[in-house]
Write a structure and sequence with these properties.
The chain has 81 residues and is an alpha+beta fold. The protein has a five-stranded mixed sheet, with helices on one face. The termini are far apart.
Length: 81
């Protein structure tokens, strides 16, 4: 299986109704997505899930998630509003 480096991926971050933040565009396996989602949920002390390759984090955390994902080496594009 081919794994791409984080910097080669363009993630799209949505914040919906200021209650849920979603992150899509991952090329990782489900296990890797689950690991990333777990780290984010623990870091922000909130719930969340993975649905069809999209990480869903409860709450309006788009600014801090953007900073965290950028720090981990992902390229983040903001969408929604």
């Amino acid at each position: 299986m081919l794994y791409l480096q984080y910097f080669m991926q363009d993630l799209i971050l949505w914040w919906i109704s200021q209650t849920v933040t979603t992150i899509s565009g991952f090329l990782e396996s489900y296990a890797e997505l689950n690991k990333i989602a777990s780290q984010l949920k623990t870091h922000f002390g909130t719930g969340g899930s993975i649905k069809e390759g999209v990480i869903v984090i409860q709450g309006d955390h788009w600014k801090t998630i953007t900073a965290e994902m950028t720090k981990q080496g992902f390229q983040v594009k903001l969408a929604g509003g």
